[in-house]
Write a structure and sequence with these properties.
GO biological process, one term: response to copper ion
Shape: elongated
CATH topology of the largest domain: Immunoglobulin-like
GO molecular function, one term: copper ion binding
CATH class of the largest domain: Mainly Beta
Structural class: alpha+beta
Number of strands: 10
Strand order of the largest sheet: 6-7-3-1-10
Order of helices and strands: HEEEEEEEEEEH
Radius of gyration: 23 Å
Distance between the termini: 11 Å
Number of helices: 2
CATH architecture of the largest domain: Sandwich
Main location: other
Largest sheet: 5 strands, antiparallel
GO cellular component, one term: plasma membrane
Strand content: 25-35%
Subcellular location: Cell envelope
Length: 182
């Protein structure tokens, strides 16, 4: 019995050691405009703040799509430490829901991505005079970034937890079968 318990402990430690490094990606912590924000004036700049150091991806870092399917021109994207900033042409803003898709390169070289929406209450004015005080202030985004592609963790429980549960069930079934045979 002691031998089986030792095997279970070693199996659980091995599963944890393999699964934990996969959880080390940077996550989107806050954004300006914030996820779900309702803006009275279009932003002049987008700012994304992450939980870890990031860099610009090989493709576009930020894409904003309006309710009509048109994308906003995004220029001067830069990554500094944990933040990506980019200038946007607010003249492309229309009233309605906008989708902001982002990509960043994590410190380990993997590309992470996600999307969120914000709403423009009114369309952009043709005049370039927009009061700075009308732009929404950055607000926290949920702890896990929404992703355009499903991830193994999209169910809310990390994959490594399910691996540990499965291992415990298998080892428990083997121990129960052995015990009944004895």
């Amino acid at each position: 019995m002691r031998r089986y318990f030792s095997a279970l402990v070693l199996a659980l430690l091995a599963a944890t050691a393999v699964a934990v490094p996969a959880q080390a990606h940077a996550e989107l912590k806050s954004s300006n405009p914030a996820s779900g924000a309702a803006l009275d004036a279009p932003p002049q700049q987008v700012e994304l703040t992450f939980s870890d150091v990031i860099s610009l991806p090989d493709g576009p870092a930020i894409t904003i799509t309006g309710p009509d399917g048109a994308t906003w021109p995004v220029t001067q994207a830069a990554a500094v430490d944990r933040t990506i900033t980019a200038k946007v042409d607010a003249g492309a803003a229309k009233a309605g829901a906008h989708t902001l898709a982002w990509q960043a390169k994590a410190d380990d070289g993997d590309t992470i991505s996600g999307t969120f929406t914000f709403t423009m209450n009114v369309a952009a004015q043709t005049s370039s005079a927009t009061p700075a005080s009308s732009v929404a202030v950055s607000a926290p985004v949920s702890g896990t970034p929404p992703s355009a592609t499903p991830s193994p963790e999209s169910g809310g429980v990390p994959v490594w937890v399910w691996i540990l549960v499965a291992l415990a069930v298998v080892v428990g079934a083997v121990l129960l079968a052995r015990r009944r045979q004895a």
